[in-house]
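Example A, followed by Example B.
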Amino acid sequence: MALTETYLRWRYRLVPDHLAGEILSKRWIDNTIPLFILLLVVAAFSTAMPEFFNAASVGDLSRQWGEFALLVLALMIVMLAGGIDLSVGSTFALGNIVALALISVAGWPMWAVVLGTLACGAAVGLVNGVLVGYLRLRAFLTTLVTLIIVRAIVDMLLLKYSVAIAGGFIDSDAWYYPGEGYLLGMPFSVVVAGVLAIVIHLVFSRSRAGWHVLAVGGSRRSAHNVGIPVKRVICSTYVISGIMAALAGLLFASRLGGAGADTGIGLEVTALTAAVLGGNSLGGGRGSAAKAIIGSVTVMIMVNGLVRIGVSAGANSLLLGLVLLAAVAIDVRWLKNRHKLLSKVYVSPTFMDLPAAPETDEGSIYAVNDKLHPVEKIGLDAIDGPEDVILDEDDNIYAGNRTGDIIRFFAPDYTRQEVYAHTGGRPLGMAFDRAGNLLVCIGGMGLYRITKAREVERLTDETNRSWLSVIDDSRLRLADDLDIAPDGRVFFSEATVRYEMHEWPVDCLESRGNGRIICYDPNKGKTHTVLKNLVFPNGICMSHDGQSFFFAETWGCRVSRYYFDGPKAGTVEVVIPDLPGYPDNINRASDGTYWLAIVGMRTPSLDLAMRMPGFRRRMARRIAPDEWLYANINTGCVVRFDETGRVLETLWDKGGENHPMITSMREHKGHLYIGGINNNRIGRLKLDWADPDWTGSQSYWRRS
């Protein structure tokens, strides 16, 4: 058995099973399959035709790609909003003939030709946008009709101007530059496509307009309900698509200088194949400029490679159709099954061997008693989930609730209350600084300060990112408790970097060490990680020496001490290695000792399961989450310990009636105030031995 456990310990320490889930959860994972296909296509044509990627071939191919990429980007924008634009090929042809007619027949200057051509494309897009966006016609049928109409217009223009265009001579270097010139050593069309791709990426990832398009593509009804102008957003995507398609036609006209009846025919199918092959969803709401670029490069290589091999036009179209069919099938299956796969591999338990749990029978320091039976009930049914409680110098009580408010109960009888501040998140640990401001850890948001004027200010919501971490651990997910050093530095715990506020019990199932302790320095305005790989750190208390603090690791069932200053700076000491339950908040006591909340008691079944990561993995994959084996957080107690970690006494509510669940406690002027994240009350217990004048603020800041 010992050999097996040794193997499991090292196997789960050395093999990072959680990486599969982390990679699948990344947005960029959607690019993996398109990128793999691109590399496969490049390898195939490089092998079949070694000269295919020589300098001359790549130069000629890149000019064609620049024009084609604009069409794919145009189609991608419409697809992100949940639509489709089958008229891009016809608009491309219209841009081509209009540009040639304006420059060679009408004799317009180059700047006017550009504006006129783009205006024609915008007009086609506006027609599509009004019909699809404002009149709510079906995008597929509407743009199919537009394709036919615009193609007819192109044919009529060809009949009228083709001879004049063919016989004319364009004496303008500015006209030939877009099609034949270079910028920064690259063909002009490639630079244009690259710049527009970057702009589109920034718009969709950093701007409100881009988020509106993604929201509309994800769910038009939901987008409308939150106030997004859905019709206008849809219309604008078609206008932009028309402009970009016309721009591609202009570049094509500048490069070849001619117009034919077959210009742009079938281009919409090729562009659609590229967009979908790159990973842009036909269902809307999912896609990117990078996906469009990858898809356009892949299809451009395929089309040109097949032509050079000698494949007939019909076979070429057949192959593209098959590729489009395969891309759609992959997109649908991936979208349908990605989250199923992620749910099976994301939860990644590891080996966790806890020390034997101390007994709670008579004769043990942890023996169950009824010392909490006299607890008074403050705010019964007037507060929901006071995870932490704290008192000011005027004896008023502050506690966060489930709806994001911090409630203040007024002394002396605590029957009157008010909303002290609304945080917008879940208030957890709290502490008063030297100036009397209330610092709060808010789950999912970070570290905040509520000034004495009751203004809510963000102090930090990020820290330094680990260099070798797949997880983006720069963002704070679950900051849960804090304390303040004498020099003003704030040390706070983040319970887990893998799970959000509503998922925190799942971290117990992993017990991987996803937590950390972070320091925010208000003097420098900087945040950095102090300790990593902690097992749900949840509870920090500055020691009386001012050079260290105690912290609890909930699933590790232990309390440790970290020295951040002095001769032992940087060292960690475990002071209580074997608690009978799951520790939570820690706070000072008036006699120089410390209070510790036990949020729930250990069970033999879960302790055994912690040494069986394979069992927990199978449990997470095969049964519903509400049937998983979780830690018991329904009953607990309050523990008092000294500087060395020696437990001095425990306080229980044997019947679980007055204070059934405990996550925090504060001593204040001879009383102990108790909070619980699942409770509907704040408890108060008179301590006969305690200093009736002692307060936490006085202990920290030496106020008289």
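Example B, a separate protein, is given below in the same form.
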Amino acid sequence: MLQNNSSLAQLKQQIRDTTPRAEGQVKGTDRGFGFLETDDGESYFIPPPAMKQVIHGDRVEAVIHQNGDKTSVEPETLIEQGLDRFVARVQKREGRLAVVPDHPSIRNAIKARIKRSLDEDSIADGDWIVARLVRHPMKKDDRSFFAQIDELVAKSDNPAVPWRVTLARHALEQECPDAGSEWPLHEEGLEREDITAMPFFTIDSASTRDMDDALHVVEREDGGWRMSVAIADPTAYVDENHAADKEARVRAFTVYLPGQNVTMLPEQLADDLCSLLEGQTRPVLACTLDVNADGSLGDYRFFAAEAMSHARLTYENVSNWIEGEGDWTPADNIAPQLTALRDLTEARSAWREKHALVFSGSPDFVFKLDPAGNVLNIEVEERRIANRMIEESMIASNACCADYLSANVGHGIFNVHRAFEPEKVEDAQAFLATQDINVDTDDLLDLPRYKTLKREIESRENAWLDVRLRRFQGFTRMSALPGPHFGLGLTAYATWTSPIRKYGDMVNHRLIKHVLKGEKAPAEASEALTEQLTERRRLNRMAERDVKDWLYVRYLTPDAEAQTAFDAEIIAINRGGMRVRLIDNGATAFVPAPMMHSDRRKVVIDDKEGRIQVEDVERYKLGDAVRVNLIEAREDTRSLVARPAA
């Protein structure tokens, strides 16, 4: 009777309505307790008993409890499950099967079963698997966490664990696509010019196999240059209905990892038939463009052709030769082109500094591995003149592509970058005002005014200001329609120079060919495709970062044991401490607040401002150069821990 009593139901509702609640995301710790982080920045303590009902990443509504001066929350309603598909390690104990998610904030051993199609005997303790969470204690009729093992990723002793686990975590393909047995050319209605006699050349890393761009450069009598860019043409072999195209569309990009590449196209195409190998005639899509003496772009022409690379050059040799180092010298028909390309590069850089934007690039850190995947060394590759020569050539070519597609088609695959996320514009404006930079919100959304602002910020040479401003800035996304690229300071940007490794470039190749053949271009790319390309690029970058983090921990373990000191820069500050990047090798390490002072209460962290005070004195801020000692390398979380050097 009480259950049907309307007065009792009303009373319960009143109690619920007046009970304070909070909604947010659960953040777990390795000490059993957790926190509820709300969207407005509040943080509530979740005691260990309550944490047994939730897992890191869950979004919940929780009841707020006040006990004296202590506030805590008890999760009441699951809004969104934080863990679904995940990578884990198998735990077998006395005939009981469980999985431990591979996540730094999750230590739960979750009871599990094995998918029927898998052989249970093939999965042993410590093996890496992919699982799904199929039961959650906060769901109706579920009393505990329970998972199903769907896939064996790698045996515990497999030397390829860092690569296989990382690719599985991000649901990326483990192997290159299968190759077809025959690859006939598809040339209907397309005429190709024979430019095989022109001495094109390639510049790449010594290990590169998928060479997709070759150059030819001559000086004009008026002081400018004429540059021809020949780009590999996989769409000559792969039409839109081919299985290889459908697979490339899913993969979207070649995944480049230390010691392993997972190609977008079959290796037979990527590394052989399409690669612009020295001395081999290849179908190409080409563009001849004029660069004026002041670095501005002049006329250009796109066309289909057959071309041949006459020289395979490397960044190191070309840079050494231009800088007067080493014994290597280019052939007589290549040397004048390299000199001309160097001068073109300096002119283009100067023009972009004045009329667009040029960002100082950071060096690349190249992992040298043995056949078993062990790191032998990490080499620093600076952006020397040869790297800049190729970079400027590709930016100029892609700017021409954006203009060509905009004028002749109206759509394509464009890289669009807004300087600031629309929802963060007002916050960015307010922050800049605190730095005596007074701008209207329109200034942050208008490309010409933003370029002026960016130059003013750069002129201050304030590393803290530059890093702090990134909190408000947006990311590059793929768009079917042209739009500004604030990062480059260009009104539109569309890449076509890497079709072996980027599906969007293949799409742009096809559109250019439609124009060359006088055909009506197909409808613009769907939003689903542009979102797919954007998301896959994000996943690829995360995979590269994750594999590097794993290898860094293995490589730097002896340094952590020896507490080696490194020069570093502060790249992030949060409530728990600061994250630094080691200058020598590019690794990132975390410096916990207790490492800054033995009395944690004397460390005051302002994570919003990116500043840290120790004993009431500002000691650290974003962008600062610091010196740290590595003190721990944790392979289970792929993380490095450091403390400030004495």
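On Example B: The first helix runs from residue 6 to 18.
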